[in-house]
Design a protein that fits this description.
single chain, about 250 residues, alpha/beta, Rossmann fold, 7 helices, about 25% helix
């Protein structure tokens, strides 16, 4: 079971940004409308969240991902070509389409930084470094964070810079070992926890998810004191795997 602090205190006005299943997130509408920019940390080959954000807030977008290299795309295309041999004949075409859409997005709408987000040490880019690339008129900023475990390096900095943030969605990994850190973050950050969603890819020995998506907002629009899971807009991350039920401790 998950700590009671992981459960939002109410239901809020949520929308879904991003594609179906993995890559889409529920966010609180006010935090999007109040933002003047978006910093996306962790992109992979998918910019559907950023595209949807832009339809609501046509503002500056900065994206960070040190793993998106020529080798990354080469492996991606090889997998698409091999898919032909299992009957998925349109995969190479779809792969090319996704690639050119991705490149077009960053040519026309966003700025891409091939950098690793972290503490600022060991050649990583800190949150302060990323914020300093924005002008003062581009705050508050909304944050999308999916950086495969490095999120724990930046939690203290996020807390210290909360006044510049309208909201965020962050995917926490290794949650079986990091619960105390997540709990402290929820308690210390000056934002309201508005949603939680389990990534159904992997579970621990107790059936709890090993990755959790959490959404925060500065001034959320509260709809009800009743919280129900899953939300009507939630989707499982991995369609071939079973959905995970969220259970919370009461003490």
């Amino acid at each position: 079971m998950l700590p009671k602090e992981f459960k939002p205190k109410a239901s809020y006005e949520l929308i879904r940004l991003g594609k179906d299943n993995d890559g889409g997130y529920l966010v609180e509408l006010n935090s999007i409308k109040q933002s003047k920019s978006l910093i996306a940390m962790g992109m992979g080959r998918d910019c559907s969240f950023e595209n949807d954000f832009m339809t609501i807030q046509n503002s500056i977008i900065h994206a960070y991902d040190y793993t998106v290299t020529p080798v990354f795309w080469l492996k991606y295309f090889i997998r698409r070509i091999l898919a032909i041999f299992i009957g998925r004949i349109y995969e190479p075409y779809q792969g090319l389409k996704n690639y050119f859409n991705y490149k077009s997005f960053f040519k026309d709408h966003a700025i891409f930084f091939k950098e690793k987000i972290g503490s600022g040490e060991n050649n990583t880019t800190s949150i302060s470094d990323a914020f300093n690339r924005l002008g003062e008129e581009q705050f508050p900023v909304f944050l999308k964070i999916d950086i495969e475990g490095s999120e724990y390096e930046i939690l203290e900095e996020l807390i210290s810079l909360t006044q510049k943030i309208s909201g965020m969605v962050i995917e926490f990994h290794q949650t079986d070992k990091k619960r105390d850190l997540i709990k402290s973050f929820i308690e210390d950050v000056d934002l309201e926890l508005t949603h939680i969603h389990p990534n159904n890819n992997r579970v621990d020995a107790n059936g709890d998810p090993l990755a959790l998506e959490m959404t925060f907002s500065r001034q959320p629009n509260k709809l009800s004191d009743t919280v129900t899971f899953p939300h009507s807009l939630d989707q499982i991350n991995v369609p071939r795997k079973n959905e995970i039920s969220l259970n919370f401790l009461t003490e």
